[in-house]
Each structure stands twice: as C-alpha cells, then as structure tokens.
Amino acid sequence: MEQRNLIIAAVLSIGILLVWQFLYEMPRMERQRAEQARQATLQKEKQANTMGQGVSVKTPSSQNQESIPTPGASIAPIPQNEGIPLPGVGGSAKGAPAVTALRNAAMSSSKRLRIEAPRLRGSIALTGGRLDDLTLVGYRETVKPESQEITLLSPVGAPKPYYAQLGWTALDRTIPLPVDTSVWQTNRQTLSPGNPVTLTWDNGKGLLFKRQISVDKDYLFNITQTVVNRTNTPVTLYPYGLVSRTDTPETLGFFILHEGLIGVFNSQLEELDYDDLEEAKTQTHDSTGGWLGITDKYWLMALIPNQNEKFTGAFRHNLTGNRHKYQADFVGQGKIIPANGSASISNKLFAGAKEVRLLDGYGEKHGIVRFDLAVDFGWFYFLTKPIFYVLDYFYRLLGNFGLGILLLTVLIKVVFFPLANKSYRAMSRMKQLQPKMMKLRERYPNDKQKMNEAMMRLYRDEKVNPAAGCLPIMVQIPVFFALYKVLFVTIEMRHAPFYGWIQDLSAADPTSIFNLFGLIPWTPPDILLIGIWPIIMGATMWLQQKLNPAPADPIQQKIFMFLPIIFTVMLASFPAGLVIYWAWNNILSIAQQWVIMRRMGVKIGG
Length: 606
What we know:
disordered N terminus; 6-stranded antiparallel β-sheet; Beta-galactosidase, Chain A, domain 5
C-alpha cells in the first residue's frame, strides 16, 4: 500500500511541478524574452554611439545623448590560441603542467601586488590594476589531500582568463583615464587583512587616481577609489566595475542548478545561462542596491556597488574568432570632482566560495540586498534553507554531516509521527481486512463494478480509509527534494565525509557490486555503479514492502516486487547522503510499523 501511495504521490508531485511550470515559469520566461528583445532594440539604437568593442551604456544622469564607453572595452582582444582546461574553472587537472606554465608566463608580463589572506592567495596585476590571480586556500579539486587547490581567477594570456577590474569612465573622451595598459604604483608589496594597499596612477593632465584595497579574513574585498583634481576645471567621472570570463566553462547542465551570469536588481533575482546570454548579447538593468557577477556551482565572483546609489548593471557577451567572452559590469552615478578638490566612491568585491553562513553574514553586516540568493536553494527555499541550517547545527554538534543527516531524519520522523502513525494504523487495518477482501473478489470474479461497490461498503463499515497512507508520503516528498537540493548545491556538503568508504556525501557511493566492491580491479561503467548504500536502501525498501498489505491484482504484485530493484538502480547515482537518509528513514519506518502491527495483533509478513 505504501509503495502504491508512493507512486500516486510521485505522479501528484510531477503534476504540481507542471502546474508551477505553466503558471509561473513560462510567464516569467516570456517576460524575460520580451525584456531581452526590448534591450536588443535599444542596443541597436545606441550602436552609432558605441566606442570600441561591446555595447555602450546610457547614463541615467546624463543630460545629452552621448553614451559612456562600455566597461572593459579598452581591454586587449582575446588571444586566438585554444585554451587548455583550467582546474577549478570548469576544467580538470588534466594537462595541469601546461596550464601552470602558460599561467605563469601570463602573470610574468606585469609586476604584481601579492595577496596573502587566511583563505585566499594570489596577486593583482599592477599593469591594468586587475584582480586576475586568485587561489582558494583549503578547497581542492578532489577529496585527495594532495590534489590541486581551486584556482578561481587567471590573467589574460593564460588558459580561460577570468578576472575583475574597477575603474572610471567618462563622457569626455579627451580625459586620459586608467586603462588595461596603465601601470599603477603601490605603497606596499603585499595585501593582507589589516594591511590595506593604496595604488596610484597620474594621468599627467592634472588628475591623480588612487585606489585603496583591503581584504578581510574570508573572501570580501573593499575598494575605495579616489580622484584628486589638480586643475581649475571640475570633471565628471563615472565609476564602473566588471567581472570578465573568457571561454565557456564546463557546466553540469542540471535543471535544478544555475551556473552563469547572476545578479539582484531592485531586490529581484536575475539569472542568465551562458547560452542564453550568447543569444541575448546584452541585457541591462537599472537598480538601486543589489549586486551582480558570475557564479559556478560552488564559487562566486560578485560586484557589489554602493547599496544606497543607483547603478546600471549589464550582462554582455561577444565572440572573437571562436572564443566567447562573458562579462558582468556596472556603471554608477556620475561623480563631480571639483576643481582643486577630490571625490571618492567605495565598492565591494566578493571572490570565493559560496558558504551559506558567510554570505548571510555579509548581507546582514554590509546591507547587501539578498546576497543569500547567490546559493541556488530553488523553489523550496522556505524549506531548503531551514533544513541546511538544521544540518549545519547538527554538524557543529556532532562533527559529521552524515551523523547530522541521521539525526535530521529522526527529527523529521518525530515531526511527522502523528501522520505516520495514522498511516501505519490504516495499513494494518487494511492487512486485517485482506481475508474479507479476498472473499469479495471470489464472490464477484467477473463483475468489477459490484466488487468495487462491495469494497467501498466494507471500508465504510470497518471505518478504514485506503488512501490514509498517502498523506505522510506526500508531506515528506518536498522534504526529500529539499534535502537533495541541500546536498547538491551547498559547498558545506562538498567533500564532507561520513564513515568508511563514503568520503563525499554530495557524491554517489563510489563502490559497485559488479566489481565486488573493489575486490576485482575493474571500474564498471556508470550504469553499473551500484554501491553498498544503494543496496542497503533497496533491502530496507523490500523489508518495508513485506510489512504492507500486498495488492490483490497479480500484475500489481509483480510491479511492486520490482520496485526496490528499480529504486536501487535509480538512486545509485544520487548523492550518498540522500541514499543514507532514505535507508535510515526506511529502517525507522519499519521499526515504527512493526510496533504498531504488534500492538494491533496483525500478522507480520506474508
């Protein structure tokens, strides 16, 4: 009965998802396409005023029809050599020596300011003033401690360039501004927490540009840009920031996970996949407060403008030869630098791992609008995030996320105990009625209508609801999906070990019955990777099925007999943490159902 209810619940869940898709997702996508079409029309109108490569951005505060040059338009063309996959940026460690050599050669083209922080290591190119070299300390490519640390950023000239840059732009094209070839001077050789660095560049025409950069103990940079005007004429400049990525990174391509361009504009989350941006070319948003950048599954580069000022954010794509370039950028409001005076603007830059508590803390401390949405908790956000926090609390209590999942399962069983109790009692009563149901089938072997009517009278007389077992399963399905989402998207679960052979709860059980769990030196194809925990889950599902009343129809009996095997194969590729949850949940359900059946005098098994 419970397995039948599970199928019914699954069908209902798919129905709910389809309704959601038609009533919410499709209209949202239509609005997005309409906005993209509108932006494309606007960009064509602005084409005449475009300076350099890219698309120009109208300044909301400008009083004429001139346009600000696109941030990053002065950057040198993308090299045409084929890129080698870069570890940590959508690539693998294959070819790592060649990658390292090319990367080192690219970095040697400029003097550099070192970055030494507890969780970051890298450098800033003094030529151009770009943050283009960053490694995440403590995060590695694989669970092996000797594997490479995650390389987040790489300079132009290296495989898959990925960098951030801030600066100034102007309507007056005659003003010399710092560009990618400008060489900045520094007052320190190393940037570290508590030791900010000031970069300076003189344009030789009376403007001195200063850039004070500080970094905290995690992943947040604070950049204060100051312009000193030594002339007798006021100057208006516009601050900008950009994150640029060359070559399309490898993505998982999962429907439930967004990887690509991301931002929050006017408190609304905007997500754009790489292929969608290739079609749209440019998408702009005017906003007060918010942030924008490029996200991977676990890593994020985000520009955070002043949260109290208006800015124009944009997602851009261009193609040079066969190489794609993706850019997220913003242009802030114009700053008037008075004659013989100065003006400053402060912005922030996040470059690191998408740790939930850290992002929440940054959002609260610095007033960053909806910064927590950088983690893709999905439709069940209201359920997924609380489940993460409960798991995280249990982890801090027990020191192991696997134990936290077991304890979370117990907590869920306690919460749903009344519903489950009602369900198991109903199934026990159904099992008690099986002899009477068999007699009815024998009485009406060829008249299904009369048999069904007699069945309904029997249920009514015995006060049994055959659908009572469906409700607790229906309630738990969103919990199951939410836990899957937590295991899939949160970096806290990445490489989180359990015990024994499970060294990563976010990955599938690495063992397989087809090589005798590693005793035979052979790696089976993915479809045959059916590990120990999926088998345990299937076995507990089979035992639970034996406690339930068997369907009277022989065909249904055969179908339900194969369900544990089907689910074992299906869930073998799911995260081990989810399979452990399901197996442990089955064990608790078996114990609860066994106790109820004993109390009601119902025969166990058969």
